[in-house]
Design brief:
heterodimer, A: 69 residues, mainly alpha, 5 helices, flat, B: 79% helix
């Protein structure tokens, strides 16, 4: 009885947690790959400030093995 | 229930990220410094830097820490979904096996096709294509493994034996990953970069990722076990 209840609890994830996954992955992408050059076609001039984040996180990105520049 | 796993994932991820950052700082940074010195030696490569090297080394911990918080959060939610479906007996073992699986599928396999590169390898004008190719491989590698996992389960309900099940689906997965490797664009050439430094850099990047996933699997498992014991005694 308890086992079937446990299964039901985790069989589907609540909607908010799927949204949370999407948000976390977006944040991860911004951290790992956002740069002025990458986002310029999407954001135009507004993409510039992403270069500061890009340069600050530069070493981490290289050592985590993500394409950088 | 899921929110508790999310919190534990973010906490374990932050710690694992800082741990990986420490490894990267001690092992990876000296090699990265060497690569950047080479980049500046080569003619015309010198350009105005936004941040000094020492600021970028602080940024390393920022990057791996934030990487840890976000990846750990996703890991916690995914764990909440898979918890009852994993064969291992304890939270610690489940956590380590899930972290090991994601490390292999989302990092180890893609890095065979697109290994980590130090600065100056890769043409900056192709960064969009390379970024897209890298994340496509990570996403499709994860998707293929998820489908393989579903296939194993559905074969199980049809009463097909464990060894035949694993062999069939395992072979299918290898073929799919092989096709992905062939279809996706080639990795940038590292010609002209000293091979010793390149190899050392790739090893240090591998170690950084391994430190993160080992740390995440262990710490998340320990946090879950601790919460369980508290529940039992309360």
């Amino acid at each position: 009885m308890e086992k079937t209840l446990g299964r039901r609890d985790s069989s589907t994830l609540p909607l908010w947690s799927l949204l949370a996954i999407a948000l976390l992955l977006l944040a991860l992408f911004v951290l790992l790959s956002a740069s002025g050059a990458l986002l310029a076609p999407l954001l135009g001039q507004a993409a510039g400030p992403f270069d500061y984040l890009h340069e600050f996180a530069h070493d981490g990105r290289h050592l985590l093995g993500v394409p950088c520049h | 229930m899921v929110s508790a796993y999310l919190r534990r994932g973010m906490a374990a991820g932050l710690l694992a990220g800082l741990l990986a950052g420490l490894f990267a700082f001690l092992v990876g940074e000296p090699i990265l410094d060497r690569a950047i010195a080479l980049e500046e030696e080569s003619a015309g490569a010198h350009h105005e830097e936004v941040f000094s090297r020492s600021t970028q080394k602080v940024g390393l911990f920022f990057a791996t820490g934030l990487f840890g918080v976000t990846v750990g959060g996703v890991f916690g939610i995914v764990y909440a979904f898979f918890r009852e479906r994993l064969a291992a007996g304890s939270d610690l073992r489940r956590s380590i096996s899930l972290a090991g699986a994601i490390f292999a599928v989302a990092f180890l396999i893609p890095s065979l096709k697109y290994p980590a590169n130090p600065p100056s390898v890769g043409d900056p004008s192709t960064i969009r294509e390379r970024t897209a190719a890298y994340f496509t491989l990570v996403a499709l590698s994860l998707l293929a493994t998820l489908i393989a996992w579903i296939a194993v389960r559905s074969l199980e309900t049809r009463g097909i034996g464990a060894s035949r099940r694993r062999l069939t689906v395992g072979a299918g997965l290898v073929v799919v990953i092989g096709v992905l490797f062939l279809l996706l664009p080639a990795a940038p050439s590292a010609d002209g970069f000293p091979s010793g430094t390149l190899w050392a850099f790739r090893l240090s990047s591998f170690g950084t990722k391994l430190a993160f996933w080992a740390g995440l699997g262990l710490l998340f498992g320990v946090l879950c076990e601790r919460a369980r014991r508290k529940d039992v005694t309360a």
